[in-house]
Amino acid sequence: MVKAGKRSGGRPRAGEERLSREAILTAALRIVDDEGIDALTMRRLAGTLGVNPMSLYHHLPNKAAVLAGLAELVFASLEFPDPGDAVSWQEQLKDAARAYRNALRAHPNLALQILSDTSAVSAVVVVTVEPFYRALDRGGLPARQIVEAVNTLVDFIHGFLLGEVAVRAETFDLAPDLLSRVAELPEGKAPTLVRVVSELGADGLAYDFDSGFESALAIFTAGIAAGTTNAVRSTGTVSAATSVDIANQTDPSANPA
Amino acid sequence: MVKAGKRSGGRPRAGEERLSREAILTAALRIVDDEGIDALTMRRLAGTLGVNPMSLYHHLPNKAAVLAGLAELVFASLEFPDPGDAVSWQEQLKDAARAYRNALRAHPNLALQILSDTSAVSAVVVVTVEPFYRALDRGGLPARQIVEAVNTLVDFIHGFLLGEVAVRAETFDLAPDLLSRVAELPEGKAPTLVRVVSELGADGLAYDFDSGFESALAIFTAGIAAGTTNAVRSTGTVSAATSVDIANQTDPSANPA
DNA sequence: CATCCTTTCCATACGCTGTATGGTTATGTA
DNA sequence: TACATAACCATACAGCGTATGGAAAGGATG
């Protein structure tokens, strides 16, 4: 179909290959960072590389592979701080969580894609979270509890990021929206919510993701410490002691499936 | 453009309107439940209703509105169990969490869409989680801590569901995959992970979402209880007491932003 | 009764998507 | 020199969301 006289087509001259998996993924990441995930189309991507859309398919099998490659890039950028045996295991765990959050936050337009692809990405996560395991191991938790605690913490971070990247501003302007919504509630519908909101007021409700994240980490470390009290106590690392009882004190009917 | 003789077109006879917002959303939910979110197209949706695709746009402005409507349906189906003052606030909180998880799990093909739409849905969540507030209020937490704890718990549930709906089976067959992946790790890359995995073995690694969820709830209630010990102690509800110190004992450098 | 407005539905078409197919050409290897 | 392979391009197709505008049935109004 193609006329013989055309210039286009054919393999490029030696040493000037325009495409490679890396080059494509780098360009894709740039598009996503600059213009959002919806701006990433195969035509657009090929365009910024000065290439025909179909050429991309010689380096990546399809668009899903491009997105998976981007997720891979982000996880590769994950760098945990040096453990530093000087700090407590709690602080070590928190640092790991902060690093994990920051890595995914670095490309907010990509975060949703990464989190959605969990089944593919969970494989990567599994071998990425050694620092979490190390911190909890130092904390003296038995293997089973380490796994449970890491899963819980990672799931939380994913959920937190879901909310964080969904809003544009760093400080979500939740307060006015929430106040008006609460004001519209049918009388007596959600009394506790109403009381809490009015007690805090607009200022108290101003939400800051950073402090929200830190509050959550505090709950986690306390909860994990409480659960492991017995194990830790037997090693002598922690002397004070009945937090697990506090948690379960009025809760005799816990029903793990 | 249309020939005069054609039968098609025109308003239907009285009393036999084929379309309505509810009818459309019901059909859409059925498609998503049966065939997945990708099967939901405006043409397909119109097809199952025996109607021209463009007719849908008289009842819903665009496809995004259809998806938002589905999210709305799911949240409307959220039913929390009767608080029941007999159980502890911890169990009350857990029950609320279980109900929330179950509501979103009921339509797994839709969960990702709902969770992705957080900015739109968070508004709904805010007024949906009264039971969470009530439980924590009964636990004696001050307003600020109630908000932080609820945010943390809801974020966790979202992240948990992200993982849960991403895999088909109820029991994720993580073990063999994880084992082979760990076996491929460079020597000494993730020693703690390797040790934990080998300690648990394939049987110990078999992951069950239900028990994973319960483990997480235990960590949460313990962590929240620890954080509120002082407040609760002043009311005399809880007598034993130094868990907050345990959590922070070797952690003097907590740095909330 | 006739007229007009509004609502509901339909037909067509546009620009966009991912990608299947198959052609063209420069290169490494025999 | 011959050939297989790899890298690139042109075309085309089916599908998407939806803009535009026409047709027909009521309800309201004279």
Question: Class by helix and strand content of chain A?
Answer: mainly alpha
Largest sheet of chain A: none
Question: Biggest interface: chains and residue counts?
Answer: A-B, 92 and 93 residues
Tally of individual helices of chain A: 13
Mean pLDDT of chain A: 80
**What percentage of residues of chain A falls in helices of 4 or more residues?**
55-70%
* Rg of chain A: 25 Å
How would you classify the quaternary structure?
homodimer
Task: Report the end-to-end length of chain A measured between terminal Cα atoms.
Answer: 65 Å
H/E element string of chain A? HHHHHHHHHHHHH
State the low-pLDDT regions of chain A, or none. Answer: 1-7, 230-257
Q: How many E strands of chain A?
A: 0
Assess the beta-strand content of chain A as a share of residues: under 5%
Structure description:
Two copies of one chain form a homodimer. With 257 residues, chain A is an all-alpha fold. Helix content of chain A is 63%, strand content 0%. Chain A is built from 13 helices and no strands. Chain A has helices spanning 21-35, 42-48, 63-76, 89-105, 108-116, 118-128, 130-138, 143-166, 174-183, 191-205, 209-227, 229-235, 243-248. The radius of gyration of chain A is 25 Å and the shape is flat. Chain A starts with 20 loop residues before the first helix and ends in a 9-residue tail after the last helix. Residues 1-7 and 230-257 of chain A have low confidence and may be disordered. At the A-B interface, helix 4, helix 5, helix 6, helix 7 and helix 8 of A face helix 4, helix 5, helix 6, helix 7 and helix 8 of B. Chain A binds a DNA duplex (30 and 30 nucleotides) through residues 1-2, 4, 6, 8-14, 17-19, 41-43, 51-55, 57-59, 62-63.
